[in-house]
Amino acid sequence: MPGTPHHPRSCRPRRLPGFAMAAALSLLVTACDERSDSGTAAEVAPQRPAAALAGKRWLDPGDRTLPEQWMASRLAGVDRPPDDPAVGRLHDLLVRADRAYDETPRMIANRAFQLQEMLAEKGIAESADSVVEGLLSVAGGDGITHGFGEAGQHYVTLRATGLDRDTALAALRRAAGDGRP
């Protein structure tokens, strides 16, 4: 026809019946999911979770992970078995913290990593276990339990003002009424 642009048939979109489209999609998905026999060992090997504990950012309520094992794994950047010496050391640390503070070992471990991250955001490198050890020095032997999270927040605030670790902990002890420097 004069004045009408010529469109060759091969350029026009084709419509497939619904069942044909579904079949084509099904084949495509299936083909993408299968591995060829010529795949490498890495492609064929079953996927293992990469550092399941070390990569976990938080222990949820009801999580059956040992807080000390999670802490040791996170600190090391690789999963640690329950009988690892670092896990034992962190168990002892969390037991002491549990006696000194209101929170459970799980919450203390969670808060310790939150505090580590908060300090890092301010350019201060201090590990979660070091934070727990420091805050244990603040918890008085008065038999009164206090909040670990609250003490930790005060600690981060003091560190953010430029105080070093020892000076910030001494200030927290003075504020708590402890005569120790």
Explain this structure.
It is a single chain. The chain is an all-alpha fold and 181 residues long. It has two domains: 9-44, no CATH class; 67-175, no CATH class. Helix content is 54%, strand content 0%. It is built from eight helices and no strands. It has helices spanning 18-33, 41-44, 67-76, 85-100, 105-121, 128-138, 148-160, 165-175. Helix 5 (105-121) crosses helix 6. The radius of gyration is 29 Å and the shape is globular. The protein starts with 17 loop residues before the first helix and ends in a 6-residue tail after the last helix.
Q: In a few lines, what is going on in this structure?
A:
The protein is mostly helical and 181 residues long.
Based on the model shown, name its key terms.
54% helix, mainly alpha, disordered N terminus, 181 residues, 8 helices
The figure for the number of domains is 2
Count of helix runs: 8
Q: Give the C-alpha Rg.
A: 29 Å
Uncertain stretches: 1-50
What is the share of helical residues? 40-55%
Distance between termini? 98 Å
